[in-house]
Amino acid sequence: MRTALLLAALPALLAAQETPTTLKDQKALAVTIYNDNLALVKDTREVRLPKGEARLAFEEVSAQIRPETALLRNITDPKGFWVSEQNFDFDLLTPQKLLDKYVGKQVTVVRSVPNPDGAGAKEVRETATVLATNGGVVLQFPDRIETSIPGRIVYPGVPANLRSRPTLVISLHSAEAAPQRLELSYLTGGLSWRADYVANLAPDEKTLDLSGWVTLTNQSGAAYPHATLQLVAGDVHQVQAQRNVELGMARMAAPQPPRMQEESLFEYHLYTLDHPTTLAVNQTKQVALLSASSVPVTKEYLLQGQSYYYTGSYGDLGAAQKVGVFLSFQNESTHHLGMPLPKGILRVYKRDAEGRIQFVGEDQIDHTPVHEQVRLKLGDAFDLTAHRKQTDYQNLGRKGKYTNVSESAYQVVLKNAKKEPVTVLVREPMPGDWEMLQNSLPFTKTDAHTATFSVPVPADGSTTLTYRVRVKW
């Protein structure tokens, strides 16, 4: 009987021996968020530890913590301090979980029954054993078994392994019984960020104003109040099989918000917000990344060919082909930029004749270092069309080491319905070894397998490009 009483009291004894710490003990918090649903949390709290062996219940950690990455440091008195064991308790307290934990145990069922005299009701208490909770509850009373709860259940206590919030329980040794500052670092999922950019194109389409925003999303199951926030841009390798990474400790351009501070970190870039911020549970928020005005921009029209055009007989290639519209600018300090740009979506707007903002296209940009070009495809030109026709094809058979040798002749008619002249780049990818035999306009060999023609097209007019090429493959 005495042994049974001790076993029943064990959860309460263990809980009493724990030293809990919550956000009220927090002295500093830093969160570093990576691109791929990964964050490093450094949570510093001041806790009064007993001397010798102790169990620290570090509450209000992320529900998606990776326990194998957790590291607890004693900043105040590291000598004589060590950790021997840690357990992540993620079985959280709910009415159903509490009932499940009492299967095979006794509870008190309280129900109201009318008074015999009809004046109100009185409470009746009965002891019952919880037999099962699968798809419902089964209760055994001294004189019957019921499959529904005939009132409300009163529990004698909460089991020690059932927590009200995610908790990391750490068995440790402390050299002194005194308040000590402890830093818990760990990796977690559920925190992510992305970069979004908004560009306002000038009426003459020669410059744009650019704003960068960071969108933060917290689905980790924990709040991070007044945190120092840092973001890492770059492709950090993770071991996917184990999910284990060792700790390595539509707005328009706003008027000049502060930039995030940027620095190199290993082979990545680190961005630091200049003030603490709070990441609430299940919240998405945005903070300013950068702002640049009057960035010089280049507009380009491009007709893109295909390499298969030159390996067979095709004749007329059908309906009018689209001419793509591109904008590009340099990431240079002389162009009011000059900081590494994290990958994200860049959306471009322009004002119409009445001064109203209109959306004109968007594109995804990759991580872009300083001195590199940002190039955006915004769509296809409405007033520019192209018609491509193969005017000749000859298969010349095998010659030397080449299996196939052929000659193709093409005619490309570019039409411009605009009121101003334009220049269209016609980019033709060539397979194998190639030689231009005839061409009505000059071309540039932009790489080993590409010929690019710069074709001027007059207003309300057209230009015809013809060329013949021999390819060996």
Our count of helices gives: 2
Order of strands, main sheet, comes to 28-31-26-25-22-21-27-30-29
Helix content: under 10%
- Radius of gyration equals 35 Å
Provide mean pLDDT, rounded: 87
Main pleated-sheet profile: 9 strands, mixed
The residue ranges in which pLDDT falls below 50 over 5 or more consecutive positions are 1-16, 241-257
Key descriptive features of the protein:
disordered N terminus, 473 residues, mainly beta, 2 helices, elongated, Immunoglobulin-like, single chain, eight-stranded mixed sheet, nine-stranded mixed sheet, 3 domains
Give a verbal description of the structure.
The protein is mainly beta. The protein folds into three domains: 1-91 and 162-193 and 213-289, no CATH class; 95-154, no CATH class; 298-331 and 372-472, Immunoglobulin-like (Sandwich). Helix content is 5%, strand content 57%. It contains two helices and 31 strands. It has helices at 2-17, 95-101, and strands at 18-21, 26-33, 39-49, 52-59, 71-74, 82-89, 106-114, 121-132, 138-141, 144-146, 152-154, 167-174, 178-188, 191-201, 207-218, 224-233, 261-265, 268-272, 277-279, 283-296, 298-304, 321-330, 344-351, 357-365, 373-399, 402-416, 422-429, 433-439, 443-447, 450-457, 461-472. The strands form five sheets. A nine-stranded mixed beta sheet has the order 28-31-26-25-22-21-27-30-29, with no helix packed on it. The protein starts with a helix and ends with a strand.
